[in-house]
Amino acid sequence: MTRDILVFAEHRGGQLRKATLEVLGEAQRLAQASGLGLKVILMGHQVEGLARELGSYGAKEVLLADAEILEGYNSQVYAHILFEMIAPIKPVVVLLPATSMGRDLGPRMAARLKGAYISECIGLKIGEDCLLEARRLVYGGRFIAMVKSHHPHFQVATLRPNTFSPAREDRTVKARIEKINAVHLKQPPSLHTFLKEVLYEKEYRTDIAEARVIVSGGRGLKGAENFKILEELAQALGGAVGASRAAVDAGWRSADAQVGLTGKTVSPELYIACGISGTPQHLAGMASSKYIVAINKDPNAPIFNIADYGVVGDLFQVVPALIERLK
Fold first, then answer.
1. 273 within some domain
2. Is 90 strand, coil or helix?
3. 140 and 12 fall within a common domain
4. Which residue segment(s) compose the domain that 309 sits in?
5. Residue 202 lies in a domain
6. Average pLDDT for residues 165-171, to the nearest whole number?
7. What DSSP character marks residue 257?
8. Residue 165 above 80 pLDDT?
9. Whose CB among 76, 88, 157, 190 lies 3.0–4.6 Å from 118's, allowing a Cys bridge?
């Protein structure tokens, strides 16, 4: 058994995801502290350029699986090929970002490898016995649980995005790229799902998980049509529009805009909460923002407890005035 930490590198639209660089940065710290080796696994089609880019972020060894069947994400195909790649290596720990893909792929890997699985980690440590110790939020972010694996190898963990420091760029490092043998790059013998087409929204919107500025709306918006003023404010600030769970459940915004424990974890430089009371599950997803501005009619709204700046007032008066001032 090799004594390695493996990082699964996720990418989208020809670019490495920010969450991947955060996982790589934490893996580098763990490898240095524990004396373990570090390898990165990259899967996709025509992504050798991304493998070299991983080297510029300190990844010295990249295992590259490049095949046409990996062009689009299919959980069955990815899980099958990733298992074929990981099983012979027998790493100590496998780390993935807790994105939609990572949440899908992580438990599948742990089950296939008959290993331990810890999700949504906000802190990691590897003991002298090579057992993984993790901190993760529980009960809607009210408490932090300390979890320790009792499995000696094949420990799989997903890392909560916007929680760890990303790997630093280092152009002096060049990755040693090992291309995976074509024998492993075959689809599963019994494939039940097929990727037919990827549909994109007509208007590209910045992923809130990677936005520098986020303007979020909640129940106080009173309807889907009123999110137009938040879109205008976000555009003026060069940011993206988010939403609380209440707004998403009401059908006012799509699920990919949800901020919170059951949505996305965000950590922008500026977070403006409009008409959001501040439930614990929402605060758990945005409390690490650098600056938080809250606009709410209720002076006792919990959101004000963590806000750097608070405006007690009607958002339908405050937001248009703010847009006008910005213009």
1. yes
2. coil
3. yes
4. 208-326
5. no
6. 88
7. G
8. yes
9. 157
Angle at 114 between CA 33 and CA 166, to 5 degrees: 35
Label residue 148 by pLDDT band (50, 70, 90).
very high
Residue 271 sits in a domain of what CATH number? 3.40.50.1220
6: Cβ contacts below 8 Å, ≥ 6 apart: 39, 40, 41, 86, 89, 91, 93, 94, 95
DSSP state of 180: P
Q: CATH number of the domain that 69 lies in? A: 3.40.50.620
- The 10 Å Cβ neighbour count of residue 310 is 18
Structural contact between residues 261 and 227, judged by C-beta atoms closer than 8 angstroms: no
What's residue 200's pLDDT? 65
Q: For the CA atoms of the chain, what is the radius of gyration?
A: 21
Candidates 294, 248, 247, 252; CA nearest to 270 is: 294
Q: Are residues 171 and 260 in the same domain?
A: no
The Cα–Cα gap between 105 and 83 comes to 10
Give the residue from 288, 296, 293, 291 showing the smallest Cα distance to 309. Answer: 293
**Is residue 85 within 8 Å of residue 63, measured between CB atoms?**
yes
